[in-house]
């Protein structure tokens, strides 16, 4: 049994389930179902929720259950507690007014009566799932020339009521529309009703409902006309179903295409009406019926206007006795307000600019229908919610003053081309819209055919995709050819890459061989240097000088030191002439920690062909350094090599470039005591450049460096100034040179780099040079 509230005739507050209070009229009892219907009606009027939201929210709710719809919607956060209290108070006022009216007329308040008065269009009943036979008491017979039997009420508007009737003469079902409350209808209202039938009757198009008969009932004097019965399915139902399925994950493209096909039919029907100088002025999905076979038919021409007729006052205003506002906020015939449905109304229509209302006003209405198809809501539904506090006048002002709503704001997934078409059709200024319904239909058909549309500028990618869709056979052939070409290219590239890798591997192996070859040449030079310094320490002239020094004071010929010194200088000079990279040869004596040159022959730096014997007065004497002390400890015949940098203090160099210094101890053959040292200096840079000449122009860059990576010579052309360390050019060898001589070899196959360290002395790391080779791609 339905819950009933009984209170006295005064107003009082009753507690809700959540503790809030609702105003009710004392002494009246309303069932739960009546309060639910009135609550939903007020919520839709206020724009707090739309039909899509409500339908989704009520999917798991029944009007015949125990939970009031207000509780259910508040639990889902569709209405706030404050909004709920306000809506319930307004619903109580509506029900009280209805009850008072029925009491005066002697009627009885029932759920059917509430729906009939509050929900004339039947939309709320459909949303709440209410199946109630409406107006059965008024059923009967309408007679004019023929006989029409009323079966059931289909709907009701501000001016007329629509019945399902049976034409007994033709044995067919028809829709019969008659003036509501004929005894109360004014002459202008009846004239408008007649004019509606005449306008619909003059339009002959498959997409416009045909009028069969206009007449007056002989018994009740009710004015009526009959037309084709189409059922109760409208485009609004199809749009809601499409978006419900889309949100549930059904992205079948045919669902949208079916709606757009219907939309094209609507445009063509309106185009026909425009060709007859008739504009509809109330285009919306609810005014588009869809029969059982999917045929689309535009209905409800009650607000239509013939453009070649003189404008009368009732073109824009109804008398106050005819005014009413439907439950969804559709401003049908409010006194002092413009005609039409605000949720789909054009700005010039809302602003009351009569001189601007023409065919392009219907174009806006068509764009509004397209907007509903793309988003599932009416264009001005958000404006209705924002202006809920100021009522219908606030909504009308918002429509006239706010920018055109964009479909992508309500549905970001809307196709951009369709969104652009919709925006153009709903442009704020009529001149910016499509100028005919046919032009709008053509744009939609171009989109459906995969053709470009004028309202949207496609990107290159979109144009390419469209071309592929339009030329499937050619694109398939091109795709096949491209695939074959791509496969061939991939295979060729793979083969080329394989060959390149093999070639690179071969080059890399050859480069490793070159490292060994270059290292061998340096080693050979060092060995020759050691052999020559050893030989220079054992020539007879050296022993002659040693002997002459031991027999000082004796005058025997051949033991004179100067004679032997001259002979040794001749020997050293011959050595320098035979070896172009030797810079100096010297004999030194070591005594009491001091090293003194006895003989020195050197090459002129600025003129390598000039070799001079250093005079005795220019011979140097200095304290022994670490290197000479190490050489002094060697056994007879042992040679020590060292890299002498220009800044070194212990080598006694007279040049700016690094040199290799080879030294061997000299012993007195007679006594076996250390006499001194024999040394040879060679130009390290010249040696390196001479070796690299044979490797210039090959597929690898070669760098010769000192032990820390400082470059001495290279085959790399165009080396940037300041790149003095090889790690700046070949970063992967940085760690190799940072190892302080511990690493002897380095291989980086991924970068094609090989490095080696060549020791000057086979048995220690006192001196070494670096060698780096890198493949050139």
What does this protein structure show overall?
The chain starts with a strand and ends with a strand. The chain has 777 residues and is of the alpha+beta class. The protein is built from 23 helices and 26 strands. Strands 15, 16, 17, 18, 19, 20 and 21 form a seven-stranded antiparallel β-sheet that branches. It has a six-stranded antiparallel β-sheet with strand order 5-6-7-8-10-9, with helices on one face. A five-stranded antiparallel β-sheet has the order 23-22-26-25-24, covered by helices on one side.
Determine the structural class based on helices, strands and strand pairing: alpha+beta
Shape: rod-shaped
Distance between the termini: 92 Å
What fraction of the residues are assigned to beta strands by DSSP?
15-25%
Q: Quick one: biggest sheet?
A: 7 strands, antiparallel
* DSSP, total strands: 26
Q: State Rg.
A: 54 Å
Q: How helical, in percent, are the residues?
A: 25-40%
Mean pLDDT: 80
Low-pLDDT stretches? 1-13, 132-139, 311-337, 553-558, 648-653
Number of helices: 23
